[in-house]
From TrEMBL:
Hydrolase among keywords: no
NCBIfam families: hisT_truA
Name this protein carries in UniProt: tRNA pseudouridine synthase A
Summary of subunit composition and partner proteins: Homodimer.
Record's keyword terms, sorted: Isomerase, tRNA processing
């Protein structure tokens, strides 16, 4: 590794990367199952010849993908741009490193993130080429206008307990919503949702509820009641994980 030691000064680096989540049990390290974090730390530790621990911007569930994810790690080594190429050579094909850059030593990948944005894809026709990246929802038509009507209701609330996985270690279920919108492009629907933070399983629970609205099972106005019940059983079934992508995490890198 072409790097130098920095006289015992600990340096903090941010790493920007993407991954296809199909083969992983989520981002975060698991006791028995393979995770993206485990692969990343193994590669970094091998190349830098020291034990490297990373802290991610968040955790994605089993099977969820990330087009733009960040993590930070600390080392005494002064790193250069060769590390990106070395990591990409070492890592499996479904994890790609985009860049590594130094940040202030107290800058935090999770706590300093200002927003997170996800996209969810639904195919309205049976599409053999998007089986792994879109929910194949062709048996029943969806009313995108009603789904967007329901989305507007999300902005009236900050407590999203109804869309949270039960029994997690969240200290609060409050989230500030910045965007929630469905777009149609031919036979594909794309849902974009952005907030300061998300609860575990929250996006997939929202998508599942919106699909109930779109298929006429419930009305847009019913989403208000779902949220106010503060009960996961009031919301729709979680949408499949394979169609969900983390697409951006925001930071103020000044």
């Amino acid at each position: 590794m072409d790097s130098l030691h920095s006289n015992n000064i600990i340096l903090r680096y941010f790493i920007e990367f993407s991954y296809n989540g199909k083969n992983y049990f989520g981002y975060q390290i698991q006791p028995k199952d393979i995770s993206v974090q485990e692969e990343l730390e193994k590669a970094l530790s091998t190349i830098l010849r020291e034990e490297i621990k990373t802290t991610g911007a968040g955790r994605t569930d089993t099977g969820v993908h990330a087009k733009r994810m960040f993590a930070h790690f600390d080392t005494e080594q002064v790193l250069n741009e060769k590390l990106v190429h070395q990591l990409n050579s070492f890592l499996p094909a479904d994890i790609g490193i985009k860049r590594i850059f130094q940040v202030k030593d107290d800058f935090h990948a999770r706590f300093d993130a200002t927003f997170r944005t996800y996209e969810y894809y639904i195919s309205l026709e049976k599409n053999p080429f998007t089986q792994d990246s879109a929910w194949q929802h062709w048996r029943k038509s969806l009313d995108i206008n009603k789904m967007n009507e329901a989305c507007k209701i999300l902005f009236e609330y900050e407590d999203f307990t109804s869309f949270a996985k039960l029994h997690t270690d969240n200290k609060t279920n409050l989230c500030k919503m910045y965007k929630a919108e469905w777009e149609q492009n031919g036979t594909e629907l794309k849902f974009t949702i952005s907030a300061n933070r998300f609860l575990r399983n929250m996006v997939r629970a929202i998508v599942g509820t919106m699909v109930e609205v779109g298929s006429g099972k419930i009305q847009p106005e019913d989403v208000r009641k779902v949220i106010e019940n503060k009960n996961r059983n009031s919301a729709g079934t979680s949408a499949p994980a394979h169609a969900l992508f983390l697409v951006d995490v925001g930071y103020d890198f000044k």
